Amino acid sequence: MKILSYLLVYRRFLLIVLTPLLLLPLPLIIKTKEAECAYTLFVVAIFWLTEALPLAVSALLPAFMFPLFGIMESKEVASAYFKDFHLLLIGVICLATSIEKWNFHKRVALRMVMLVGVNPAWLTLGFMVSCAFLSMWLSNTSAAAMVMPIVEAVAQQITRAEAEADMLEMSCSNGSINPALELDGKHTVQFLSLPTLTPQQNTHIHTVCLCNYFICGFVLPVYFTQVKPASPEYKLYISGRKSREDKYNGIFKVMCLCVAYSATIGGLTTITGTSTNLIFAEHFNTRYPACQCINFGSWFILSIPITVVILLLSWVWLQWLFLGFDFKNMFKCGKKKTAREEASAQVIQEEYKKLGPISYPEIVTLVLFILMTLLWFTREPGFIPGWSSLFPKYKGYATDSTTALVIGLLFFIIPAKTFSRTSNGENTGIGYTPLITWKEFQSCMPWEIAILVGGGFALADGCEVSKLSEWVATKLAPLGSLPLWLVILISCLIVTSVTEVASNPATITIFLPILSPLAEAIHVNPLFILIPATLCTSFAFLLPVANPANAIVFSYGHLTVMDMVKAGLGINIIGVAVVMLAIMTWIVPIFDLYVYPNWAPNISSTNST
Question: Does the keyword Transport apply (predicted)?
Answer without folding.
Answer: yes
